[in-house]
Design brief:
With about 190 residues, this protein is mainly α. The chain has a single domain, classed as Farnesyl Diphosphate Synthase (Orthogonal Bundle), CATH 1.10.600. About 60% of the residues lie in helices and about 0% in strands. Helix 3 runs antiparallel to helix 7.
């Protein structure tokens, strides 16, 4: 996923329409501009408001990437629940590129097309977490562990989706309290 490296704190959604993509052709590696705009507005307040002890504007692209990664994780985890409530947050053009439709979501069908689609979504989201991670070290030490834990726990939800054969229709992916506890010592060590 490509976001401008030097976004100021006051950037606007129209900036996303002008992000460099290297091609005007539709690419499976980039989100549609409308999806970026929706994701931006869904995470904008916590990521772009001034917070005490924050590193300043150089951390904003990392914060936005992490906010988007967390939101995409929510979207992927909640596909079944959202569909049952009449909502689909997955990009229609990406579903179509994998031969899927709203009817497939309604049927809760986990087949090779769905697995390929979800595998792509999860790999792309893992890359976003990787790109966001360096920003955590820019945070004040008092808040670093909490943000690293949120990123790590949410990222592990993607692994749980994969471990359950991408079935997000019949089971909500999650981490148990025990799984979270096992991750905390390593997080603390890396973020002290």
């Amino acid at each position: 996923m490509i976001l401008p490296a030097n976004l100021p704190c006051s950037w606007e959604p129209s900036d996303l329409l002008e992000r460099p993509t290297g091609s005007t052709a539709k690419s499976a590696e980039s989100l549609a501009p409308a999806t970026w705009i929706w994701l931006y507005w869904s995470i904008r307040p916590p990521c772009t408001c001034p917070w005490p002890n924050t590193p300043g504007p150089q951390a904003v692209p990392y914060a936005i990437k992490l906010g988007v990664a967390l939101q995409i994780t929510n979207i992927l985890r909640d596909v079944g629940e959202d569909q049952r409530n009449g909502r689909i947050y997955l990009p229609a053009q990406e579903l179509a590129a994998y031969g899927l439709s709203a009817a497939d979501l309604a049927a809760g069908r986990v087949d090779d097309l769905w697995r390929a689609f979800m595998g792509f979504q999860i790999r792309r989201n893992h890359r976003l977490y990787d790109e966001a991670w360096p920003g955590i070290s820019m945070l004040h030490q008092d808040g670093r562990l909490a943000v690293a834990a949120a990123a790590t726990f949410y990222r592990a939800i993607l692994d749980d989706i994969e471990a359950n054969d991408y079935d997000v229709f019949n089971r909500r992916a999650h981490l148990s309290g025990r799984q979270k506890l096992r991750l905390i010592p390593g997080l603390w060590w890396r973020n002290r």
